[in-house]
Amino acid sequence: MSCLMVERCGAISFESPDQNALCIHMLGDGSLRGQTAVLSERRGSYPFIDLRLLNTAVHPGEIGTKKKVKRLLSFQRYFHASRLLRGPSPHSSLHLLDEDYLGQAAHMLSKVGTWSFDIFLFDRLTNGNSLVTLLCHLFNVYGLIHHFQLDMVKLHRFLGMVQEDYHSQNPYHNAVHAADVTQAMHCYLKEPKLAGYLTPMDIFLGLMAAAAHDVDHPGVNQPFLIKTKHHLASLYQNTSVLESHHWRSTVGMLRESGLLSHLPTDMTQDIEQQLGSLILATDISRQNEFLGRLKSHLDSDDISLEDPEHRHFMLQIALKCADICNPCRDWDLSRQWSERVCEEFYRQGDLERRCDLEISPLCDQQANTVPVIQIGFIAFLVEPLFQEWTRFTDGSLLAECMLGHLRKNKERWRQLKCREQDTDTPAPGTEQQGTGTGVP
Ligand SMILES: [Zn+2]
Question: Where is Zn(2+) 2 annotated to bind (predicted)?
Fold first, then answer.
């Protein structure tokens, strides 16, 4: 096997020097030179895997056949060089920024607990370092560095790894989403109903899980990995495949950075397990399981926050809320997230179409508009969860504010959907046979 250099850029990409070549990288879009590539990854025992669909030999149109796709879905292990050897990340060039920008970012941090916090602006002001900057600030604010006696160099190293392993070319599942979820988590940790009971360990776990919950997300969903027989799907037996990968990657980074190496082994093992339990709770297919348990607890009024298990459950719920809170933000922020997540769905759909795979639900741009996807998302997933969260908080100011945004945003998507239908409906007398609205 020949060995090549692959330069990581932290992204999933579909690079195609000609129309017949297609690469999907779990990590880094890289510039592939030649036929094969090997990188080194010394992070625990979970090397990153690139899914490559390479077809340089077939004629245009042939890539669509099932036979070709099956043959071409080979999995390649790329072992990335340790960051210790690679030197500092180019993303850590905060000093290159105009001091005005840093001043504005610092000013934004003074209001990090407000629900209108604009994470997109913050990310621009920090030159794409929103996740590292936010986490360092929150660890300081909560006194976690002092409490756990954390080494600042190791903390920076760990957070830099996490941020870098998000794929910046994913429209949605990137480091800004992680920073957004972390900021929301911070708001939830301050809820009066919860804050008084939380230990430093609870806060540490909540923030860490939020920051790392989607790390190395490939920009495609679990059904895609299963139907393309990605090795991660078989490794995790087709269950919580992505979430398991996010968790195990986080554990690998924790160990490589040595962030917790000064703590007793049983403590670090407990942290790793609890991080897993929190990150795995973000699997949206387990929504009903968590929602049912939350409803049951609230109905019987038996949540006891002195109980560590109950606190852990509420941290799971808080993280789930933070992960899908986009429709509860101001319209301007919420709309941007909606467009980004749909763009990611559509990219997957385009890829499936090119590979003659069945197009996944919501991924067909012709059949699913942004308003239609958002209305369904809000009605079936977001609203039921946030109604129960509001009940848990006894209708806190923040919870009511979020529900208010949610209802307004849903109404706006409804109006946009109606407008689209009006636009797509032919004027009387101009109907043509076989034309459709494109909206289900
Ligand atoms: Zn997420």
Answer: 214
DSSP count for the chain of H helices, then E strands: 20, 3
Has 231 been labeled as part of a binding site?
no
Q: What is the 151 CA–ligand 1 centroid distance (Å)?
A: 28
Ligand 1 center from residue 68 Cα (angstroms): 33
Query: Annotated catalytic, 173?
Result: yes
377-394: per-residue pLDDT in tens?
999 999 999 999 999 999
Does the annotation flag 174 for ligand binding?
A: yes
pTM over 0.85: no
Please identify, in words, the CATH class of the domain defined by 51-85+108-424.
mainly alpha
Which is more confident, 88 or 336? 336
Say how far apart CA 216 and CA 8 lie, in whole Å. 13
The rounded Å distance from CA 254 to ligand 1 centre is 20
Does 341 count as an annotated binding residue?
A: no
Position 428 scores a pLDDT of 52
Contact 290, 317 (CB under 8 A): yes
Q: CA-to-CA distance for 224 and 359, rounded, in angstroms?
A: 9
Catalytic residue among 25, 91, 167, 173: 173
pLDDT in tens, 93-138: 445 556 788 889 999 999 999 999 999 999 999 999 999 999 999 9
**Cα 178 to averaged position of ligand 1 atoms, centre (Å):** 7
Cα–Cα distance for residue pair 41/81, rounded to 1 Å: 5
